[in-house]
Amino acid sequence: MKPTLQTRLGQQLSLTPQLRQAIRLLQLSALELETELNQALESNPLLERGDEDQGDDRPEGEKPDEPSPEDTPGDAPEPDEFGREEVDEWYEAPAGDRRSNDGGEPDELTAAAPVDLHAHLVWQLQLSHLGPRDLAIGQAVIEAINDDGYLEGPLADIQAALRPELEVSEAEIETVLHIVQHFDPVGAGARCLSECLCVQLSLLSEDTPGLGLATKLCKDHLDALARLGADRLGGQIGETAEAMATAVALLRSLDPKPGAQVGGSEPEYIAPDAIAYRQGGVWKVRLAAGSRPRLAINRHYEGLIGKASREDDSYLRGQLQEARWLIKSLETRADTVERVARAIVRQQSGFLDHGNEAMRPLTLREVAEELGLHESTVSRATTRKYLRTPRGTFEFKHFFSSGIATEHGGSASATAIQAMIRKLIEAESPRTPLSDQKLAETLKAEGIPVARRTVAKYRESMNIPASNERQRLA
Description:
Layout: H1 17-26, H2 30-43, E1 47-49, H3 84-90, H4 107-110, H5 117-127, H6 132-143, H7 155-162, H8 170-181, H9 193-202, H10 211-220, H11 222-228, H12 230-237, H13 241-252, E2 274-279, E3 282-287, E4 295-297, H14 299-303, H15 310-347, H16 349-354, H17 364-371, H18 375-382, E5 386-389, E6 392-395, E7 403-405, E8 411-413, H19 414-426, H20 436-445, H21 452-461, H22 467-470
Parallel strand pairs: 2-5
Antiparallel strand pairs: 1-4, 2-3, 5-6, 7-8
Helix pairs in contact: 1-15, 5-6, 6-8, 9-10, 10-13, 11-12, 12-13, 17-18, 20-21
């Protein structure tokens, strides 16, 4: 077959470099955007920082309405409203814990590094007087402990992990495990709640009130105690109500998740992109400080264009064009984020006034049609962007959810239904928690027909355990 030339007429969407840049900047979070701008400032001599926009577009003298007590989750100010000094003033450490930094090292040099549970246990293992064989077993045991402090998997898994270097018996592992369980935190390495609490009880003084009965309950009757309650169980095993109360109080003082008190993830601070505030009874939105970064053209280098050598002149003209594209893309990004935030606040003003139960169903398409944007643009503008409200700081995506038609002719969002489920569970009796079926029936009685499996899905998404796991002592 001979090669031939053919002419075809067609249309094709081509993304210009400017459009590609605007799309990429729109999907960046505030922290990623700052990193991007720092790199651009370092690499492009035609760029420089302009006057920083403070993000407040209110006329001078106007103040937002004071939030009502029910709007504000707590009295504590949000960390992102303060500098480091104000946070330190708000959180006053005990006098003995404070350290003066006058003339000393910076805080970041004197602050202790976060401690990991496994590292904390390994450190104690290395300080114990064990031989190389037991140290290797202890290392394998600690690696099998989860963040809550419980040993995951059977001892056979630890045996397998030690092969082929070591061939050990389960009795040897049990011996080392017993040692690890008495490290700090006490009870780490337990295989179940009963064992965890029993290890903690074993270290108490023998004259501790209720110790004997608490140990008996922990070993043999822990499930029955949660199911029946102290009074009924006490009657079955022949113990007085006073003795049961003392033993139960002792059990309550123990730590069911000893690993959680060591280490854990570092707190994550979020810088909001927009702020919702109420003014004159109307909800308004403004961009947060730093959400509209100001870049400017460096006039010195711009003045060199046309005066420098041909090679330098070509370089400066290219950098000037890139700088102008970036500045325009930043303006487009800020305007899009602000428009989307305002649309969200208009649609979800009920949530801002009354909470999660008033959240209405909202889709990307609704906002896109209202603003005349494409759905993909709204999606990028809502990803890793945060709105600060009197009720807390939420990702834009938090305000979007599907809806379920109600028997009253309206619709309820998934977020609102989840809030109702949480409210019902919080008000339930700890002795007789509500099953998923009962929750579904209660919601149906309120005009919201949801299936039991839907209730189960929402409950699991909120990390709420099933009814049999929520049963606890009154």
